[in-house]
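step: validate -> pass
step: tokenize input -> pass
step: predict -> running
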Amino acid sequence: MGKQQDVGEPDRHSGSDATAHRPIGGDADARLALAQDPTTPQMTLIDLASDPSAVVRKAVAARADAPAQALRPLTRDQDRQVREAVARNPSTSIANLLRLVKDDDRWIRWAVASNPACDESVRRAMAQASDKELRGLLAESRELEPELAAKLTDDVSPEVRERLATHTHDLDVINTLLADRTARVRKGVARNPRTTAAQRSALAADPVVDVRAALVRSLELDEADLERLVDDRSVQVRLAMATSEVVPQHIRQQLTRDPDEMVASAARDYRPGAGNASAVRAPRIAHRPSAGAGRSGRGTAR
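step: predict -> pass
step: emit ->
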């Protein structure tokens, strides 16, 4: 899917009737149909970008073939849903994404984070933002550059570091976060399937119960680590093992003889596929709740 044109570039449809004006008239429904029609000329889309109806402008903003001259003014539209549509449009230019990532409306900033057109310059702007959730969305990105990932290991927000810990593929970043002083960050590492056997062994010896419990629920471990954890001093850890889908059956069988009856009963009653595992949470994709669908950010569209 191609990027929108910059000013001064020839129209991709030059030589056809794509740049010809199509008369605009009728009611809002008719203009909406025109905005959604794939055969509508680009010059007409530019005109529709200033339509009095926010619904029509949003339809233009969502079009992957909308020209830059149409999308640029829509990044400053009074209606937040119009700006959000531009933020989600994979053909939106980098310059417009950089403008929208600083939008006053958080949902628009978060929409930029899910746009596949984001490049390093946009991700760098996200890393420097004061918006914790935006930095958290960045931390979950598969395309995150090593330099930015390293920057996020020092993020002031434990939540951002935890989300990085859970989703990063960078082993150096994982090693750094293994030493994080905040338990919830190490708990994030304990849910990361990209960890090495050595890193999992380190987590198996973590002093915080929640970290060890998250580990046995989420990741397969070496036999030596399993044998140590089956006798863990914490009932919570042993109970997590008894109900974990990644713990092998011979370990669960040992837990049927656990001195704590709750653990022993859980091991005896375990049934595969009963929803016992603690899966890694998928990266978040920010979508505005439907309850706010009719509101605008800087006034009400008509």
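step: describe -> Residues 1-20, 276-280, 291-302 have pLDDT under 50 and may be disordered.
step: cleanup -> pass
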